[in-house]
Design brief:
Structural class: mainly alpha
Oligomer: single chain
Strand content: 5-15%
Order of helices and strands: HEHHHEEHHHHHHHHHHHHEHEEEE
Radius of gyration: 42 Å
Shape: extended
Low-confidence stretches: none
Number of strands: 8
Length: 478
Amino acid sequence: MKLFEVVPERFFHLLTGSNKYLYAEAVLLLYEQSQRERFGIRYDVIRDLFQELIETYKELGVELTFDDEDIANQAKHDNRAGQVTVEEYARAQANSLIRKLASLNWIDVEVRDQFQQFIVLPHYTSRILAVLKELCEARAVEYQRFAFVTYQLLTGEEAKRRPCFAVREAKLHTDQFVKELVTLYNNMKHHMEQVVQKSSIQDVLDHHFDKYKSEIVDKSYHRLKTSDHVSRYRFQILQTVQQWLLDKALLEETVEDGLRSEFYRDRQEAEEDIRESLLYIEETFSGLDEIFHQIDIRHNQYLRSSYDRARYLSQYQQGINQRLVDFIRCLADSKKDLVEFPWSHLFRLQNIAGLSEQSLLPPRRKKPPHQPDVHVVVPIPDELKEELRRKNLERMRKAITRQKVEGYVLEKLGNRQEMELKELAPTNLEEFLLLTHIYLYGQDGASSFRLKRNQERCILQIGNYRFDNHLIVRQGGR
């Protein structure tokens, strides 16, 4: 389908001519009003809004071009009794603007009950205005949302019930994701071209912080590199798509679902489109590193261009402006004629010496090879080795291990199957440490005993120690 088979041929004439700024703001205002009044806007409401917009332009001193004869006739027709006022003239201009929108097929005017007129937007006007509205807004893009929705579609319940629909929607969101990344890349290039055209340091700084940082870095680039990074779902998406391509039964089920939903005319078209969609998703998420790399390059190019432009302007303007200031200051201080003007104070001469040995860098010296220190082996006496061995054995003997805890508990149990924990009431620090390890090993299921909670909830206090009086039960077969 061709463009002008959907959009009227003279549709875009509205955005040309001397009144294009007024018309552009008027149609965006019309779109905002249509979002509130979804089933039609009353004619008098939009006329009043257009009248207020035209009066605002006139107060700002903007020249508007209308057909004066048509406006005058319309104003006289509205006010037959007396002279036309400024307000009535602005209302006539608002009516002329509505008629122009209707003649170019931007709007349709419907007459409903009790001869009330309503303005509705054709489908192509609504979509085009939505795009224009989005272009005028510096919105923050949530890049992770595209990856999350794609992951949910490919792995959620919808993929089990309607696999073909899930694949098609996943491809749609993947395509939108790529478009947003390319838009970010192109916006960086646009801002780079703008910053190199600035003529003052203040303009460069204003553009860098007010435009690029607020619209690109804060709302898109920084989010893409930090909170909105898609690496969280990227691997799962690739794994799911690859399994989908290798699973013949799942592919056949997807094709059957596409044919039942009448997405395709025949089986061959369904197979080709589904496989192409899955390969597109796989290729996109596999090649994200290259896209991110190009975005980083473009970001660094902007930073370098901004810095170079600011540095050039600082050097150029500082020299010219400072010379002018010095010239004016010298004119104010000097009482002599221009012939006797002290030009040496304005243009300072610098003495530049010729090439000398002192201005050259000294020759580089080769670094001597590294000479490591001599390693000296100090023998350890046998008495010291024996002392260290004895201390290690003593430390191992005092260490509390699972075998030591099990032996302590089984010794207390004897031939019984269970006993209360109060029988292991500690009398010293070592027994208290054993008691804490009994709590630990009695609940992991890997010991020859287990700890069973006492239903009576009895807490014992023996000396300085307080503990629950649980039951120690021997594990079966041990």
